[in-house]
Amino acid sequence: MDLKLFFTTFGIIFLAELGDKTQMASIMMAAQSQKPWTVFAGASLALVTITLLAVLFASLIGNFIPGNIIKKIAAGGFLIIGGLMLIDKI
């Protein structure tokens, strides 16, 4: 296992998820249900599943589209979303 890649991935995902809508929804659900371990299990399984799908999809498209093009498409998508948020369309 590439430990540098592992810890880099962990750090990036941890910081990206910190304080996002998913975390806020988990806090709300745990507080309302009074069953934090059930919410933790459900949220963890959901994050693992969506991450698995993202990695599988990336592995598939990585065979057909070069990485630099994928980065540019992702950057463009973030710029569009940011622009729409800035003008309050989302």
Largest sheet: none
Shape: extended
Rounded Rg: 17 Å
Oligomer: single chain
**Annotation, overall tally of beta strands:** 0
Counted by DSSP, the helix tally is: 4
Low-confidence stretches: none
The helical percent reads: over 70%
Structural class: mainly alpha
Task: Compute the number of structural domains.
Answer: 1
Mean pLDDT: 90
The sequence of SSEs as H and E is: HHHH
Q: Into which percentage range does the β-strand content fall?
A: under 5%
Q: What distance separates the N and C termini?
A: 40 Å
Structural overview:
With 90 residues, this protein is mainly α. It has one domain. Helices cover 82% and strands 0% of the residues. The longest helix has 26 residues, at 36-61. The relative contact order is 0.05.
SSE blueprint and pairings:
Blueprint: H1 3-17, H2 21-33, H3 36-61, H4 67-86
Task: From the structure above, extract its key features.
mainly alpha, 4 helices, 90 residues, single chain, extended, 0% strand
In short:
By secondary structure, this protein is mainly alpha-helical. It is 82% helix and 0% strand.
